[in-house]
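Input chain follows. Return structure tokens only.
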Amino acid sequence: MRLHLWTLTAPAAVAALGGSDVQQPLAVKPSTIPSLGFGTWNLEKSNVSEAVSAALQAGYRHLDCATIYGNQKEVGKGIADGLKKTGVKRTDVWITSKLWNDHHNPSLVEEALEQTLSDLGLDYLDLWLMHWPVGSSQAGTKLDYLEAWHAMEKLHKTDKLRNIGLSNFSPDQLRDIIENSDTKPAVHQFEMHPYLPQQDWVATHEDLGIAVTAYSPFANTNPTYNSGGDDPPFLLKNTDMVAIAAARGCTTAQVALVWGMSRGYSVIPKASHANHIRENFGALACRLHGEDLDRIDDLSERYLKRFNNPSGDYGVKLFDGLEDS
């Protein structure tokens, strides 16, 4: 069952908005974003350049970055090195970055983009996301996204942005963007893994023609979440995941990634070491059976958990209307 962003079902809502007369056609379809990407969140500056270069050499053609990660200059060096060593063209790599909360003032949005391009050593981004629906300033943090989105729309008309999108928005916030803008988000990135499948939310995006990217595909394996691994158990050590991996000759990480890609969206795992980077890329050769996917689907019945929810830190309600908000 799809989530209803409006009182109508999602497809009817799109029609009610006037179709292409109101919204510009999408410049991206889910199939154009490589389904397996490489994430750069929490990669240490000391080895991020090497890791990004190794990812490109391993075959990744989708890189996910962000201003707040604090490593975009090093990522840029890794991109340059990886392209040089592989002979791959810039146009063959999908590169995403994100607008941080402290630049939501419309007068600061272009400055943020220019800094990101400079840090990464790029002329354009394939996708620029608004990282959170909140803006921060000396006055504090509050829900603040519509005017920043309009500023992003203006930049989308230049040759510096191929696509614009969102990250971590709720159904009401996504509706607000679509109803009050000329450009529908091309992509929405949010947390997703077997402990937080968000199937209805994914289906709603499919109905609306918005591609989805899942971050944290390994769930609480990310040390940032400070999970003890007891409730729920670490995803990559979950006994069901381990059993499926053993039966199919894959790693548990590969199983988690295949589960995500099988649901029709892209995934962006992070790894620091070349062997893990190559191992994760091997997910493209991992084959799961229908019963494996069903077994993984059942995990959320026991362990439903969202790990990234800074509502308390920001002092605003995030993810309203979604699983484990």
